[in-house]
Every structure is written in C-alpha cells, then in structure tokens.
C-alpha cells in the first residue's frame, strides 16, 4: 500500500473561453513536502492554486486532499492557508487582528486565541508589532503577517502565490530562506508558485514546471536542472544554449545529429519510439558546461569543439558570462558561464578561442 | 518656494476671491440674522440676538425644523441599505448590462426635479399616502439615491477582490465575509454617502413643496411660505441654524472618515 498523498490532482482542466488556463494537470504531493510550481507568466500557476483553494471549480478532473475529493467542499471549509500574490491583508485590521481572523472564523476557543496569535507572530519574527496597522508595516513585515495569517490555524496545506515577487532581490532571498525555515519547522505541506527559477531550485523538494497550462516536468530540483525532460524546461531553467538540427543515427542513448553541416554526438533524452533519420531535433547545452580554451593542447575532455570569436563579456561578480559567435555553426551565438577560480583567466572581446563541450552534456530532444 | 512676488499675489488674490464668493451668502445671512432692527437687511441694523430668541416662540418654524430632520432620517434609513448594496453589487459583479444600469441610476440627475416631483406626487396620491411625512423621506431618498450609490461604489472600486477570497480562505462564510471584510472596506463610502443624503434631504425644497400640505410643511417650505408674506429677520436666524446643522454633519464626517477621503473619493 502506498501512503496517501497530502494533495493530488488527476486530469484537472479549466478553460476560460478558448484559453486552456490549466490542462490535464496530474500530480501528487507527499505530506510535509515543499512543491514549487514554476512557469512563465500566464502559464496557469495562479489558476492552479485557485482551483486547489476552491475559488474556482475545474471543468474536468478532480483534486484530492488527503485522498478525499474536494469538489463539494466550499473554500471556507477547506483546511488550506493561502498567501496571495498581492497579500490581501485586511487594511482595516491591525497585524494581530489579521492573524486572529482565521481563528475567530474557524471558531477556535476564544481563550486560546491571544496565545496562538502571539506564538505565530513570534514565529515570523514580528513580536511587538501586532498592534500596528497594515499600512504602518514595511513590505517584508507585511509578507510575514500574511504568512502568519495563513499558518495560524495550522492548515493541512499552505499555498503561496508568488508573495515575494514584489520584493527587492536581497529581501526576496532572505524571505525564501525564511519560508523554508518555517516550513521545515512546522512540517506543513506547501505549494509555492513562482516564475523565479532560482527560488524554485533553492527552496523546493519537488518542482513542477508548467507552460500553457500543462505540466512540462515534475521532478526534484536536481533532476529538473540536470536532466530536463524537454527543450522548454532546458531553456527555462538555467542558462542554456539551444540548437536546431536533424537526427542522423542512433546507438543506444548516443545520438548523432547534424547542425549546419557539422556532425555532433549527443545524449538522447526523448523517449525512443521509432526514430527516423532526418527528424528534427533540438540540442541543449548548459552555459556552465561549455568550456573555453586558447589552444588545442589545453583541451581536457571536450569531444566537440569549434573556433569562436568572443562577442560579449559580462562581468556578474562571482562569474563571467561570455558570448561567442561560432562560424562553423552558421554564426550561432553560444553563451558560456565561467566561474571564478584561483587562476581566473579572462578572455578579451574579439579574441578567437576554442569553445567546446562533452557529448554527454549535450541533451538531444526530438521535436514533434 | 522662490516664486516671483507677482505669481504669489495672483495666487492669493484668487484664493481670497474664491473664499469671499463661496462664503458671501452665508456671511450675509448670518449678518442679517444678527440685526436689532425689524426688517431683514445687510449690513445689519445694530447687533442683537433677539431674532434667535424669537425663534423659540415660533412654534411653526420649530415644528418644521423637526419635520425636516425626520425626513432626513427616513431618507438615510432607506438609502443606506439600498445604496450600499447597489453600490457594492455594481462594482463587484461585472453585471451584464452594467453600464445600462449605471446610466439608469443616473436618470434622477437628468430628469428635472419638478418632473420627478410630480411623478412621485401622482404615485403617492394614487396609493393614498399623501399628507403623511414619511413619503417625503422616501421621495428624497429616491431622488438622491445615485449620490449614495456613487459614494459607495467609488469606495468599492478601490477594493481588492482578493480580500474577499482571503476572508473565505480564513474560514469566513459568505455572510461573515460581507460583514467582516466587504462592509468595513467600503465604510468610508457609506459614511460619506449617508451624510450627503442627510444634508440633501434636509435641504430638499422643490419635491417637498409638491408632497407636503399645510399640516406637515418642512423647513425649506415653511421659510418659502413665510417669505411670501412678510420677510422678517427670524428667517435669517433659522437659516443660520440650518447652516449650522449642515456644518455639524460635515464635522462629524471629518471626525469619522477624515475629509481627505471625502475629497479624494472620485
Ligand atoms: N478570470 C479569468 N478569465 C479569463 N481568463 C483568465 C482568467 N484568469 C486567468 N485567465 C487566463 O488564464 C491563463 C493563466 O493565468 P494565470 O493567472 O493562472 O497565470 P500565472 O501563471 O499565474 O501568471 P503570472 O505569473 O503572470 O501570475 C492566462 O492566459 C490568463 O489570461
Ligand atoms: Mg499568477
């Protein structure tokens, strides 16, 4: 017997007119885990959360919480805490009143409410600020009130709809770790929505990548990063070089493809159905897996390499991003991330150098 | 800060002119009410409070004043719930034909008051309630309702629709959501609208004129009737009392919601 997942969805669809906001979404989330739904704007992330919270009903499919379908359960009867994209704190109440509101509405014992509110204000490090009105709090403090309000009644599930998107980068990274800390401390099952891939990789146990309402991949952060299941994921997560080409031959997972007259070897990542010679493919290489070297003698382990000219050098602090134009690949632009090591050697703008990668780092997907 | 003197002068002249123009009627009537003479003139003919004292004896003016207050209270009593619900509904639900309804609700502005007055007179006459005071309250509520709706919906447009979802997510049912979240959020609009309705109803003249008879005249009608016989300074005095009541209402408004909100509401 499998354990019953805390939340699961089977074939959930929601259409607005002819826009498929959410399409055939299936997933399972185990209790106590942190799931991030990652996707570009308009990919249906908020809609999926609203379906789970019960603000909208799916056209098709079912959502289950602890194995029970919630189709008939009104939003106020679901044990779900939510932090909204724009927080939606009650402006006419103080921070403490906001946090106490779910306890009042859910008929908790009145005598325990003050203690419970205090405990959660403490948890989000807002002790002493409970008496403030919402507009007397800073952005980061408001986020914390929203989190305390969502958690105070100890829900079975916590939903976070990009509550950090509006914060500046430093505060955002701080709050990401804060979420993680609180989530681990309470062990509450969490679904977080973001379009920030870094956040997704940092905080999650499980990531669902969405595009156009459909799940593109459902895996751990490491898997999402190391072995994206299609070109969309490869391109959306991390800095990736994508090439279009044609299949030449296949031998196990090793695949030979042709990209503008060059024959390259890569690793096939698509399901091997019946692959014919000549089908179009996309090849993806991560920017940090591309190597740069001045002479062929410096080449350590790149099976594939070309000459290229440096067209851009972007200094980003702990790393440098290079852009090279490769004549052999019809002047394709290749991006390379170079991390600072002890012997930080830099390449000059306009310099002609070698650029290459290992064939196992080039992931090949069949395009349908 | 370093404006040229001429610019400053121009600015202040404008301000002073506006203040004088706006307050002139009030100042004149206030001055006239303080006269010690027997005819209504401005500037006053000596100073005294005797016309205010005279008011105490003028039973019919007092009665009319109290009736006017009643009419205003009935008006608020009716328009507060209806206007509030209509204002919220109009903004919250993107009603099909919403624009049409909005235009329809503006009709009372476009129909000359005399027209709606006669219409209401016919209706109330038909039902046989002419001669009581409450139809006057109902009439002022009907005529001025758009102000109430406008005040509430301007408050409600600024309302984040997620607030109500957040309330549900906190466990509030539809009724609790309405009373704990929706209503408090539009409260400034409700207070503004109610006071506006109170003042408008208190001052309503034309429609009252058509709906009242000699037994139930309201204050503006009473003053009008008196003017047609002899104009005595007690009319100025009662006007001042009237103005004071309106100012009091504004002061209450300021206390409750802050005038800034009132001025900012579109
Ligand atoms: N109430 C609605 N009526 C019509 N279309 C809608 C509605 N809500 C969402 N959509 C559409 O559904 C799609 C998914 O929207 P959704 O808000 O879920 O995206 P999102 O992934 O949350 O985007 P973002 O990152 O910008 O918040 C979009 O194309 C959007 O236009
Ligand atoms: Mg969204």
Q: How would you explain this protein's 3D organization?
A:
The complex is a heterodimer of chains A (368) and B (266). In chain A, the strands form four sheets. A six-stranded mixed sheet of chain A has the order 6-7-8-3-9-10, with helices on both faces. Chain A has a five-stranded mixed beta barrel with strand order 11-12-13-20-14. A five-stranded antiparallel sheet of chain A has the order 15-19-16-17-18, with no helix packed on it. Chain A is 22% helix and 36% strand. By secondary structure, chain A is α+β, with helices and mostly antiparallel strands. Chain B is mainly alpha-helical. Chains A and B meet through strand 6 and helix 2 of A and helix 7 and helix 8 of B. Bound molecules: adenosine-5'-triphosphate and magnesium ion. Adenosine-5'-triphosphate (ATP) binds next to strand 2 and helix 1 of chain A.
Topology:
The complex is a heterodimer of chains A (368) and B (266).
Chain A: E1 7-16, E2 19-29, E3 34-38, H1 45-53, E4 60-65, E5 68-69, E6 80-83, H2 95-105, H3 113-123, H4 139-151, E7 157-161, H5 169-186, E8 189-194, H6 197-203, E9 206-211, E10 214-219, H7 221-226, H8 231-236, E11 240-251, E12 254-259, E13 262-268, E14 280-286, E15 291-293, E16 304-315, E17 319-326, E18 332-339, E19 352-357, E20 363-366
Parallel strand pairs in A: 3-8, 3-9, 6-7, 7-8, 13-20
Antiparallel strand pairs in A: 1-2, 1-4, 4-5, 9-10, 11-12, 11-14, 12-13, 14-20, 15-19, 16-17, 16-19, 17-18
Helix pairs in contact in A: 2-3, 2-4, 3-4
Chain B: H1 5-33, H2 50-57, H3 59-92, H4 98-110, H5 113-127, H6 134-157, H7 161-169, H8 174-203, H9 206-211, H10 219-228, H11 234-257, H12 259-264
